[in-house]
Structure formats: structure tokens, C-alpha cells
Amino acid sequence: TIPLEQGFTVVTGPNGSGKSNILDGVLFCLGLATSRGMRADRLPDLVNSGVLRAGKSAETVVSVRFDLTDWQPDSAEEGLEPEEDGGPWIKPEQTDWTVTRRLRIMPGGSYSSSYASDGEPCNLQQLQTQLRRLRIDPEGSNVVMQGDVTRIVSMSNRDRRELIDELAGVALFDSRIEQTRSKLDVVQERQDRCGIVQQELLVSQQRLEKD
Description:
Radius of gyration: 24 Å
Order of helices and strands: HHEEEEHHHH
Helix content: 40-55%
Mean pLDDT: 85
Distance between the termini: 82 Å
Structural class: alpha+beta
Largest sheet: 4 strands, antiparallel
Strand order of the largest sheet: 1-2-3-4
Number of strands: 4
């Protein structure tokens, strides 16, 4: 259990005590980092299993459970509709939410990775949509490793402003704007199609009147 209090939470301890292992597990499960960001060249390198060394397939599963007792959707969500592709959607009355990632490694090194939201299969994009609702941005700084501190201190004013916007939840407004633009594009396309049909009907009407 990692209590996330007001402000920020620091995981500290001596070298080799498992700090990075905990964060690697969270980052892996939520799809928030590449394998290199988790100290591994490839995802299969994260699994240390005697079964693999014996030339057999192996599987590992990591789950992260969020306590949503004190969570309320952002006011920017008002009027924001769930994704049409049927992906998972955290409901305002939910008290917890569990994300699961399964990594299966085949003999020879090939592997497959899958995600689930409360047991319902989903893809990474659908998962990231829900994470953003919890103010967890895949490109953000929700989890800051030791090497990230130097990057944040030395970043430009523009990059620092983008970081502040992300932490303030401005990205959610951008999502609503993008969804509205997509709807407008669909309406415009239908309107253009109707205009073409209208012209064809007018030509047919004129031909019939002439006949």
C-alpha cells in the first residue's frame, strides 16, 4: 500500500532495498514507461524465472488497485461522453479501480502483453484515457525517478509551463475540445454528402420536368 498524501510522496531507503522495483512494477502495470525506463532493454528482461531458463514459457501478472473513495470527476468532464469503442470508463460512484497487466513470454524470447480494467480487457490507449481522468498523464511527471529531478530543474520555461498545465488538469479540457472537433468534422462531412445528394436530386428533378 502506497499512501498518496497531499503534496508529494517520497519512496526512500538504502541501495538495494527495492525502491525502484516498486516503482518499476507500478510503471509497468500502468504502461507509463518503456522497458528501458524500467532498467531493462526488453520487457522479457523484467522477468527473472527459472522456467524461462529451462526453455519453457512463463507468465507474470501485475495489478495496481486505486482507492477512489475521495475521488470526484473533474468539472471539465461535464458533457464529456465515454469513448464510443466500448472501452472501460470509471464511474463517479466507484470506490476502487484495478488495472492489470499480463506479460507472457514464449520460448525463444517472443512475448505478448495485455491490459485489463477491473477484469475487462482493454488496450493501452483506453487505459491511458482513464488514467488522465485521475490526473496521471503518460507523458507527465506523476512518478519522478532520481534522474528526472535534474531534467525538471534544467528544463526550459516552455517545458515547465506544459508540466504545470498537465498537473493542473488542463489536458482534460484539451481532450474535450478534441472530442468536440471530431464531432464537428463528422457533421461537416455529412453536410457535404447531403449537399451532393441534393444537387443530384435537383438535376433529376429538372430532367423529369423537361420530360
